[in-house]
Amino acid sequence: MGVVIFAMFWCSDQAPDHIFGSCLILQVLKSYWIHRDHPDSPASAASTYNTSSQSERIAAAARRSLTRAEYFSHRVLDDSSSGNFDSPVEAVGSDYAMAVSVGTPPRQFIVNIDTGSDLVWLNCKPCIQCIVNATDKPFDPTQSTSYREASCTDAACTGFPHRNSSCGSPGGCGYTYLYGDGAASTYTSGIVAYETFTFTALNRSSFAIEHITFGCGQNESLNRFRRYDGFVGLAQGSFSLPRQLSLVSGFTDIFSYCLIPFGGTAANHSTFYFGVPETNISTYTLIYSNPLTSYYYVNLTGISVGDVSLNIPADFFNINSTDGSGGIIFDSGTTLTMLIGVAYDLVVGEFASQYDLPVVSIPPYVCFNVSNATASTIVPNIVFHLQSVSDAEPVDFVLSLENVFLRYSETVECLTILSRNPPSAMIIGNTAQANHEMVFDRANGQIGWASTTCT
């Protein structure tokens, strides 16, 4: 779970300086995100921002990234023995939030959003035990004329992620999810249902999308997600919001975002699109399938630091065909980049040898004393070489200055890369993705990017 949370709102406002502006143009949904640590974010109380230091915030980034990486490891290995071939809802770390309007008449809810999960779900009445959320007013199905429960024979019930569904009186489809390491104390459960989601266009007109499958959660033990009303998943499964939107006329199965660097302010918004984005991206890598999950795996063929290509065996980056472990994924919900074994050791060692400043140990980070840094001090790029869609020369995903360092104090900067033990998947986190326009083109099975300024 990363330290950066942005708020994404489907509110409409034509004023360019409106923090939570959002628009729909020709079936493309566009929204703006703000940083979790900014006082205006609904995800973070102003008092927390004003009293926490930068070092405390990046320490939290490490804890959350490690927790989330642990989630990915447990989830794949747990599923490999269960015969389950769909990804469960992420309940350990979600880095983004948005507001959605649900029901008839529509009512707005604040939900976490994440590329590592597949399901849309809300706290619902009767709420036996719900997470403490922003409004403290769960969705009430009895107050919506468009609410419908899924029947036992519906595909929404029989094909529910992780197959944790059951039927009871009077015939509705119930679900139960266990999260993280499968501990029974971390769960959500409720009713599989359908609802209308309403979006607002820039011209203040609105349109409703009917029959969105969602989980009407009535019993959760997820109190670490205070101030939120539920989750929205963006992963590759059939229950994710982009997949469901792609079934609506005019939408394609694609989304994109452009993240401001860690430490950005509310004056600088990250953008998010559902549908075909306005983009000139020409660099793409293939999305690789892991039958045990719906995460966004890519084929990493090598890593360079500066001009030095590291001696890492190519098969080191492969997905294990037996248990689905290993590989590398793009994930917006993990703040830091996570490498394992020889990959981590060689990257950090080579970076330290090229970046000629004293190393400072602040576990779990590797940091540097930058008090003597000058304008001529060279910060080497870290480059991930990925398979191109044409299978020709690899394409490069470049981590430059703002992707490589987090400022710990006035004199110390820390690498945004942490070590994980195998058999974990390696992760290209959202700090690495900052100042890249990222396109998840699910329709064509590829991820594209372009280096840019997202502010």
TrEMBL record:
The keyword Glycoprotein applies. Residues 96-450 form the Peptidase A1 domain. The keyword Hydrolase applies. Keywords: Aspartyl protease, Glycoprotein, Hydrolase, Protease. Belongs to the peptidase A1 family. InterPro entries: Aspartic_peptidase_A1, Pepsin-like_plant, PEPTIDASE_A1, Peptidase_aspartic_dom_sf, Plant_Aspart_Prot_A1, TAXi_C, TAXi_N. This is Peptidase A1 domain-containing protein. It comes from the Eukaryota.
